[in-house]
Amino acid sequence: MAVRKSREEWKIYGNVFDKFTIQVLQKLEAKGLFDHLASAVALGKEANVFTATQKKDLVVVKIYRLENCNFRKMYDYLRHDPRYIHTKPSKRFVVFSWCQREYRNLLAAREAGVRCPTPLGFKDNVLVMTLIGKKSTVAKQLKDLAPEDPEKFAGLVLKDVRKLWKHGLVHGDLSSFNILIHDEKPYFIDFSQASPTKAPNAKELLERDLKNLAKFFKKLDLVLDVEAEKVKILA
Ligand SMILES: Nc1ncnc2c1ncn2[C@@H]1O[C@H](COP(=O)(O)OP(=O)(O)O)[C@@H](O)[C@H]1O
Ligand SMILES: [Mg+2]
Fold this sequence. Notes:
Blueprint: H1 7-11, H2 19-30, E1 36-43, E2 47-54, E3 57-64, H3 71-80, H4 91-111, E4 119-123, E5 126-130, E6 133-134, E7 137-138, E8 140-141, H5 150-166, E9 169-170, E10 179-182, E11 185-188, E12 195-196, H6 202-219, H7 226-234
Antiparallel strand pairs: 1-2, 2-3, 3-5, 4-5, 6-7, 8-10, 9-12, 10-11
Helix pairs in contact: 3-4, 6-7
C-alpha cells in the first residue's frame, strides 16, 4: 500500500513530530491502521494523542514523545514489572517498551472484560487504539463530567478494578483523568503503568489506585473504604 503522506504534510500537525516518528506514522499508515490524523485530543506528560480517520471510523493514535519524557520515572516503573526487568537504560528503548507495555496491557484488560479501548497495533513509540466516544466526539474525562448516578458508576469502576486484578493486572495510574465517561459507563485508559499482580509493587499500586478513587468519589458524596475494598480484592 502506498504511503499517503509526505513528511511535509505531517508537519502541519505541529512541531511534535521528529523525523523518526514521522516514519513510524507512515509505516502504520501504510499498514492500514489509519488513513490520516484528524485532530489533536490531548498533549499529555508523556504522549500526544490524536484522532485519525480509518475508513469511515475514527481511531486514536497515541504518540509517545522520544524527547521531553520522564525517562527516569518510566525506567523505574518498568524495572518493577517482571516482564520488563531487563530493560536497558536507553531512553529510546524505554519509550518503546512503555508503548509496547500499554499495548499488551490493553489486550489483557480487554481479555479480562474491562471497559477500555481495543488496541489495534503499535510500532516503536506509536500506539493505535479504538476511540472511546460517539462518532467524532471523544468521551469526556471523569474529572470533567459527573455521572448521573454516581453510586452505580462507582460500582462499575470497582467491578473493573476487581476484574483486572483477577486477570493478573493492576492499573497503577487510575484517577478521574484516566477514566472516561461514555454512555454513563466508565472506560479505563492510559495503561502504560499497569503491572502484573505478581510485580513486587503491585499491592502498593492497587492501594494507590483505590485511594485516588476514594478521594474522587468523596467529591460525589460517596464513601469508599479503601482497606475493606483491598481485602475484598486480594481475597
Ligand atoms: N482511546 C481513547 N479514546 C478517547 N479519548 C482518548 C483515548 N485515549 C486517550 N484519550 C484522551 O487523551 C488523553 C490523554 O491520553 P492518556 O492515554 O491518558 O495519555 P497521558 O499519558 O498523556 O495521560 C486522555 O485523557 C483522553 O482525554
Ligand atoms: Mg492520562
